[in-house]
Structures are given as structure tokens and as C-alpha cells.
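Hi Y.,

Following your request, here is the sequence exactly as I used it, all 77 residues.
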Amino acid sequence: MSQRQIDVFVLGDASKTYYSGTGFASIQDFRQGIDRIQLSGSLSDYNIVGNSINLAGTPDQIAVIQGGFTPDSFIFV
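Below is the corresponding structure, written out as C-alpha cells. Let me know if you'd prefer a different format.
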């Protein structure tokens, strides 16, 4: 039986959030409880609206995730 690979979708690094101001990431194969989403900063820097991740205090959408995710799905750097 093969092991499932853990995917990490990188939407930011220690210096910045990707897709800020320009477009957004469309994640279509996210597996809740297995995969992770890497973001810059902390959860308070973002608003989760349905299946969308937006920068807090702005209408700037940085990602749309198909399928469910929870705050445990995130890795912050």
C-alpha cells in the first residue's frame, strides 16, 4: 500500500504574501487533514471567507481552495 504524499501549497514566505494585489492561487486538489497551506505571518493577517483566503482588512483575495480546510491546515512562516 502506498503512502499519500503531503502537499504544501506555498502562498507566502517569511518576507511576503504571494498573490498580494495581483491575481490569486486556485488550489483544486487540496486534501483536508493531509495537505498544508503555507502563509506569511499569522492567522490574524488573513480573513477566511468560505473557501477563500483574503488579506485581513482588504478585499485582496490571495487564494481559492476547492474542498474544505481548517485553521489547522495552515503553516505560518
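DSSP finds no helices and seven strands in the chain.

Thanks again,
Q.
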